[in-house]
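Why do we bother with holo predictions? Because pocket geometry can differ from the apo form. Keep that in mind while you read this record for magnesium ion.
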Amino acid sequence: METRILGTDDNSIKEAGEIIARGGLIAFPTETVYGLGGNAFNGDSVKKIYTAKGRPSDNPLIVHIADISELDALVREISDKASALIHAFMPGPFTIILKKSDKIPEEVTAGMDTVAVRFPENAVAQRLIKSAGVPVAAPSANLSGKPSPTKAKHVITDMTGRIDAIIDGGDSDVGVESTIVDASRDIPVLLRPGGITYEMICDVVPETVIDPHILESLKADEKPLCPGMKYKHYAPDAEVTVIEGDMAAVKAEIDKRLKEHSGRICGVLTMSENCYDSAVILHGGMTNKEYAKNLFACLRKFDELGVEIVYAEFENRDGYGLAIRNRLYKAASQRIIHVNTEE
Ligand code: TXA
Ligand code: MG
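The structure, written out:
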């Protein structure tokens, strides 16, 4: 299949909308990461999304809307708590899980009786959904197992030949996928941390709890609330280790490890002004927010550069920290070293 690259002019968006309405697949920018969209009301086009990504069909998709009024047709009930979250965080980098209506085909929800819904803030995403005239089912537009795409070039690398077109709308602002809250139950549960932080959610619904699997791996026989949790995500080819703590101790630990692995191609992902000898250094950013924005692009870049071992600096500096730790810990398959300078 030939995959076209489209701009964000009105003609391109109109054409992309028509392709989705007809059952085709379009990758498009959102403020979190690029999405791979198909008509959410058409089970066959949803099946094509799983094939294009190489994604297991038991991992449900998020349905994207461009106006709050579209929500009623997708869900059975909206509790007061869910309603408060919706009004506080939509549009934005936020996904809510509610009991699904009969209009959602089972391919979207992988047989679950709930559906994940997101109203992105990105203007191009909103124009595309409106132009399609239907809700758009979309996972992140990466091949299954690769870091989510935050630039059009990442999508071009992963999806060329697999989908109808890619809309190049520049870099994603947030850089990690949306915050997911399951509000289909009495006590809302944070299933995936993102740009809307846990603190922001608790300001609206203080009872919200955090799913403990956000920072831990699942045990062999455990069934997660969020099916995506059981898959190894965001894993670059390089072996990643997170070195977490204050930056002086982090530097000392990484220096020691670089010496031990002097025969290998090593890289360091930094969130400080630390310098390292004989390593490929990529700078994530000085704040947690910047680090989140650049994280996936840096992981992809290390692979492009043939780096074999990556040490990722990390210090928890603000509310974005949970989202970064969740992604980094997965990329590192739980190889996490805590260090601190002695007082
Ligand atoms: O920012 C984002 O959310 C991006 C952009 C494109 O919107 N999308 C995204 O989709 O990250 P995806 O498919 O890569 O991640 C969706 C996650 C998966 O882990 C899936 O298991 C979970 O949401 N999910 C979807 N529906 C669910 C449901 N009904 N119950 C529990 N988890 C659900
Ligand atoms: Mg994904």
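The pocket of magnesium ion (ligand 2) is lined by residues 139-140, 148 (CB under 6 Å).
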